[in-house]
Specification:
Elements lengths: L8 H10 E5 L8 H5 L5 H15 L11 E3 L8 E2 L6 E3 L4 H5 L3 H10 L1 H10 E6 L8 E5 L3 H14 L2 H22 L5 H11 L11 H21 L20 H6 L9 H15 L10 H33 L1 E2 L21 H4 L3 H13 L14 H8 L6 H4 L2 H14 L2 H8 L18 H5 L5 H15 L8 H16 L6 E2 H4 L21 H31 E4 L9 E4 H18 L1 E3 L2 H8 L9 E8 L4 E6 L4 E6 L6 E6 L2 H4 L1 H13 L11 H20 L7 E8 L7 H11 L4 E10 L5 E9 L22 H7 L7 E12 H13 L2 E4 L2 E5 L10 H15 L2 H5 L4 E6 L2 E6 L2 H17 L3 E2 L5 E2 L12 E2 L5 E5 L2 E4 L5 E3 L25 H9 L15 H27 L9 H27 L12 H16 L7 H11 L2 H7 L2 H6 L14
Parallel strand pairs: 6-19, 12-20
Antiparallel strand pairs: 1-5, 2-4, 3-4, 5-6, 7-8, 9-10, 11-21, 12-13, 14-15, 16-23, 16-24, 16-25, 17-18, 17-19, 20-21, 22-23, 26-27, 27-28, 28-29
Helix pairs in contact: 3-6, 5-6, 7-10, 13-24, 15-18, 19-21, 21-22, 21-24, 30-33, 36-37, 36-38, 37-39, 38-39, 38-40, 39-40, 39-41
């Protein structure tokens, strides 16, 4: 027995409530020899299981083997496993460390070493971390849950519609069979009880409670579904010292397992099909039969066969077309261009020449046919070998029509007037002549507004297509109209939207392209000929977009996003963009960059040290005033270096700088978490803003109720050039002083949530100086110890009832490696811009993964140096900083003005100044600060700050939607692929609620009850606007039908339920603070009523599209629950149009 009388409490708790074990379906039966084997302790059993796993596979999947490897493969890595010469330990995993606890020693003595060996090899064991009932579970052996869930997701994504239909039919038949056997529908409790009765327990435990049984069933269902399809295919070992397996499983095991059905040989299937055709088809010598009717029936049978082949071919073609996605990134951020308008010299339409040979080369570039002759040893000469390589087969049916069309396209390309078409349909702005004016005479504002509209770009591209592509390769007029709409959609799509070949082929008729069709076809191969023609048309359309449309856009326009509208893309003529970049580079060389000569650049890159980061390319992001330089540090770079001694050029490659800086980021992030005071008043999200602003706002509100405080002074300002003006010497000193240890280690692990979603994370910790050679790990030192605070601290941020899998991968980070990388990144940051190499002398690069952290560290250092926190943060005043945006709230005017003076004097000494243009306040202080607020139509003054809208009178916090004013909501979202548009609609509507659903908006100790409900109502108003924009945009995609009203109503109901959970979770978070206990919350009925009214208000403005949805929403609002909510005066005041006037200016 596992449990005995007299066991201590820790063992009883671990055996009954904290440990779960499940055997997989493919595990062999337990023999008597395994059950009776004893004599080895737990350490020897664990080592034997690890050695057995590595003998069976070079990389075993068992979680117990994480962090280990074969000794013969990596002799220098890790330390050898105790009493083993074949396995070495690179990282001590939590699973290996868990079996060192006293519980497993006692458990092994009671069940025997053979049974323990069976558990380690064929079972999955989970141990609860911590003493809470909903604490995460740690998997310590068995097939990892992360791999099973990932394989299931991949299999689900790769499944075709036929596979999904087969799965639905199988599930339906299983449900019907279960229903027939049960003769009725059981409740969920009865199903759970039946499962509890039928589930075989691995360890007979009479002390386990009913709650733990439900937890066991939940885990068994999750793990059983995961392992059913992804169990390791390796056969069980036949070694007698490990176990004995039965040759024939019992009937229960056979009936429960799913076996692949037997398929007869191909020759037998062909013979059977031939016999079936003979029996079904009428004979030509049938006595008494009408010859005309027989001929007609034969023709119908052949037609049905050809149609069947065509449908199968088209179905396979649809699957392949949907998987091919056009990469629009080939023309994004491309600043290089040719001297004359047109294609570059390396384009297939220019480099292949003209005539017959040019058309054959172009045919090969487009359709990539198979080689006619393979190059082999029989080709003695180089000419014969080259001729064999360049000989391709062109079918006869394409020589008479297709090759002449391609030859005509080559000739048309030579005569195409690119410059005239460009100036006609995408002209330069008035007053901007490239050859007449200089850069100094043109302002940056006029250059920034000189972009070309997407409609003009689409017209220009289409006119070029009409000029160079013959009519027989563009199809009929209807096909040309569809193709023109596709070109318009390509240039109008948002930044991260994608286009598939399947969407492009919608509305394009294959029969219009006569040059791809054979001249003569038989009735028997009509389906095959049609499939071949469609395949050729598909290849042609793919090449037309990839090699003509995209190069035309890339050669004549610079395509970029902007800082204001991140998803919308803008098209600048190359001449306009060159002027903008040149003017910006001239300013940068005067302020923060230094130009390097070719020799200096070569010397910097040829240094042979580990801290040589290389260089990065610079791109420019348009903003309201000028261009913002960004370094693309997330991409590898290559450069051709010339040797000074020998006249030889060599190619040198550099890894992405952000990849090499990940260790620096991990160390700095770890130190800031351990020492949060170093960050000063910095916050990174709305939760941090609530923790920073909440105590002060609550104190001021309480004092206002008793009449002690009448007015509050608020100022929101911005630090000008926060990244560009930082002094590097001071910044490096602050970062170096932060590093407190000589070495660190990062441990990787994965977390599987109850819904099956897996996320990979890492934990970093500092190593003691007295043990520098210690083997790294584990993540959880003692997994089954309920009083272990270190394991709880490591996993306290994980979700409830989640499963943690230690990856067994660790990396040691030394101080000697971090400091040179940090120094090289700050002092030797080299960028390439328009063929020039620049060295940054002031500021930090924007685009680095460590730049935001370094910026916050520097301003936190300034706050500590000038004592901004200790002097100005009291009960009735506070300071909050979100990166470079600062907010000050105080009831003392002198204290607020002193803060501005101190910041102005102190920041200017370090090269930083306050941006007067972006400063907003409700008071005036000399020439530095002027009173400027955002005033609503009600006449109330607000201060906007980082998405928050603070009422100057009541200090209530609302969401700032002013950035949407006058803009289309469609510009703020991206569409998924057409085949996923409606399936992801509920997920997208829920995603519309997440960004602005924070606790600071629903805290009734800060905001009034009406303001809280206004925030809820406006949250769903914006979600409704985005939902309408999403539906309209998705319906306009070719091949995407209109959504059913019931489906949309269900998605809205699901989003409302999600919003209720999210708002209640945020509201409960605020009630946990010590200074706001007793604060009420908003009920779910009120949330649902406000959400329904918000969707109804928006959708009623589009009644022709949502007639049925409006009826369903009204029917829900007529229920008794909603009628009771409608009588509440708080909800009526929250929905007052005067409080939501900002939404009348938003376009959707």
């Amino acid at each position: 027995m596992v449990r005995r009388r007299g066991d201590d409490d820790e063992y009883a708790e671990a055996a009954s409530r904290s440990t779960y074990a499940f055997a997989s379906d493919s595990a062999p039966m337990i023999s008597e020899r395994i059950a009776e084997e004893r004599g080895r302790d737990i350490a020897d059993v664990v080592h034997a299981a690890i050695e057995h796993s590595f003998r069976a596979s070079a990389s075993p999947k068992n979680v117990l083997c994480k962090g280990m490897c074969r000794r013969t493969e990596r002799e220098r890595d890790g330390t050898p496993l105790r009493s083993s010469t074949a396995v070495s330990v690179r990282c001590v995993s939590s699973a290996y460390e868990a079996f060192k606890s006293p519980f497993w020693k006692t458990f092994c003595e009671r069940v025997g070493s053979g049974m323990m060996m069976y558990i380690l090899l064929y079972c999955s064991v989970f141990v609860r971390v911590g003493s809470d009932a909903d604490a995460p579970l740690l998997q310590i052996c068995g097939y990892p849950m992360t791999d099973t869930r990932r394989k299931q997701a991949v299999a689900k994504a790769m499944a075709t519609s036929k596979d999904r239909a087969r799965k639905r039919r199988r599930q339906r038949s299983e449900r019907e069979s279960v229903g027939n056997e049960a003769r009725g529908v059981e409740s969920s409790d009865k199903v759970m009880e039946s499962k509890c009765e039928q589930e075989p327990t691995l360890t007979a435990n009479p002390f386990i409670s009913s709650i733990d049984v439900r937890e066991v069933i939940r885990l068994s269902d999750l793990y059983g579904r995961a392992c059913a399809q992804n169990e390791d295919a390796s056969s069980p070992s036949s070694s007698e010292d490990i176990m004995q397996t039965q040759e024939e499983p019992d009937e229960e095991h056979v009936s429960g397992s799913t076996k692949k059905s037997f398929r007869k040989p191909s020759w037998f299937r062909r013979r059977a099909a031939k016999q079936r055709r003979k029996t079904k088809e009428p004979s030509s010598v049938d006595v008494g039969a009408d010859p005309d009717s027989c001929e007609k029936r034969n023709r119908d049978v052949k037609h049905r066969r050809s149609v069947r082949r065509t449908s199968n071919a088209s179905r396979d073609n649809v699957v392949k077309l949907a998987d091919q996605v056009f990469d629009r990134g080939v023309f994004m951020f491309r600043s290089s261009f040719t001297k004359k308008p047109g294609f570059p010299s390396s384009h297939p339409l220019r480099c292949n020449g003209t005539g017959v040979r040019g058309s054959r080369r172009l045919y090969h570039a487009i359709f990539k046919p198979k080689k006619l002759v393979k190059a082999s040893k029989r080709h003695k000469t180089v000419q014969a070998l080259n001729r064999a390589k360049s000989t391709y087969r062109i079918p006869r049916k394409y020589r008479t029509k297709l090759l002449p069309a391609l030859r005509e396209m080559l000739e048309r390309t030579k005569r195409c007037p690119f410059a005239r078409l460009l100036n006609k349909y995408a002209p330069m702005p008035r007053g901007l002549v490239v050859s007449a004016k200089k850069i100094e005479t043109v302002s940056e504002e006029s250059l920034l507004s000189s972009y070309t509209q997407p409609r003009g770009v689409a017209v220009f591209v289409w006119k070029v297509l009409e000029s160079i592509v013959p009519a027989e390769l563009l199809g009929s007029q209807d096909t040309q109209n569809k193709l023109r709409e596709s070109v318009q959609r390509i240039v109008s799509m948002r930044r991260y939207e994608r286009l598939t070949l399947h969407e492009l082929m919608q509305g394009i008729r294959t029969s219009d392209f006569k040059c791809f069709k054979a001249e003569t076809t038989n009735a028997g191969n009509a389906g095959q000929a049609e499939a071949s023609q469609r395949k050729m048309v598909t290849k042609w359309m793919s090449w037309l977009v990839n090699d003509i449309v995209f190069p035309i856009i890339r050669a004549h326009f610079y395509v970029t996003d902007t800082q204001v509208t991140k998803n919308r893309i803008f098209f600048y003529r190359k001449g306009v963009w060159v002027r903008l970049v040149t003017a910006t580079l001239q300013k940068l060389e005067q302020t923060s960059y230094k130009r390097l000569s070719a020799k200096q650049f070569t010397n910097m890159l040829e240094r042979a040290n580990t801290a040589n980061l290389g260089f990065s390319n610079m791109r420019f992001l348009p903003k309201t005033s000028g261009l913002r330089p960004l370094s693309t540090l997330n991409k590898p770079t290559t450069v051709m270096l010339k040797s000074s001694k020998a006249r030889v050029q060599r190619l040198k490659r550099f890894e992405a700088i952000n990849t090499r800086l990940k260790d620096v980021q991990d160390v700095l992030h770890h130190e800031t978490i351990n020492n949060p005071d170093i960050m000063g008043a910095a916050v990174g999200d709305y939760r941090g803003a609530l923790l920073r602003l909440g105590p002060c706002l609550r104190t001021i509100r309480r004092q206002r109720l008793v009449g002690r405080c009448k007015h509050a002074y608020i100022i929101a300002t911005d630090i000008k050039g926060a990244f560009d003006n930082l002094p590097l010497e001071t910044l490096e000193r602050v970062a170096v002083d932060l590093i407190s240890s000589s070495s660190y280690q990062t441990l990787h692990y994965a977390v599987v949530k109850p819904n099956g979603e897996a996320k990979y994370k890492k934990s970093i910790s500092s190593l003691p100086r007295d043990k520098p050679d210690k083997v790294p790990g584990p993540l959880v030192p003692c997994a089954d110890d309920a009083t272990n605070t270190s394991s709880i601290a490591a996993l306290k941020g994980e979700s409830k009832h989640s499963i943690v899998v230690d990856a067994g991968f660790a990396k040691r980070i030394s101080e000697d490696n971090i400091l040179p990388l940090l120094h090289s990144h700050l002092r030797e940051n080299v960028v390439s811009a328009r063929g020039q190499y620049l060295l940054q002398t002031v500021g930090i690069p924007q685009g680095s993964i460590v730049s935001p952290l370094l910026c916050s560290l520097f301003y936190g250092h300034l706050e500590k140096e000038y004592k901004l926190i200790s002097r100005f943060c009291t009960e009735r005043s506070t300071v909050c900083r979100w990166m470079d945006d600062m907010l000050v709230i105080s009831t003392d005017e002198k204290q607020a003005t002193d803060f501005i003076d101190v910041c102005k004097q102190g920041f200017e000494k370090h090269g930083c100044t306050l941006n007067a243009e972006k400063t907003m306040s409700n008071f005036t202080h000399g020439a530095v600060v002027e009173k400027r607020t955002y005033q609503s139509e009600e006449g109330r003054d607000y201060i906007p700050w980082c998405g928050l809208l603070i009422d100057c009178l009541t200090l209530e916090v609302m969401v700032d939607y002013s950035r949407y004013s006058g803009e289309f909501v469609r510009e703020s979202m991206n569409l998924p692929l057409a085949r996923k548009a409606w399936t992801r609609l509920p997920e997208r509507i829920c995603g519309f609620l997440k960004p602005k659903c924070a606790a600071i908006f629903y805290d009734e100790s800060i905001n009034g009850k009406v303001t809280v409900r206004v925030n809820v109502f406006q949250l769903f108003l914006m979600a409704a606007m985005k939902t309408h924009s999403y539906i309209v945009a998705a319906a306009a995609v070719p091949g995407c039908d209109q959504i059913a009203p019931v489906t949309l109503f269900r998605a809205i109901r699901e989003a409302i339920r999600f919003g209720q959970i999210l708002i209640q979770r945020q509201s409960s978070m605020t009630r946990g603070f010590t200074d706001c206990r007793g604060a009420g919350g908003i009920s779910n009925q009120h949330i649902e009523f406000l959400a329904m009214k918000a969707f109804l208000k928006i959708l009623q403005q589009k009644q022709t599209r949502y007639k049925r949805i409006i009826q369903l929403l009204n029917s829900r609002l007529t229920s008794n629950v909603m009628k009771r909510a409608s009588r509440n005066t708080l909800l009526a005041r929250a929905m007052d149009p005067s409080r939501n006037t900002i939404f009348s200016t938003i376009r959707f």
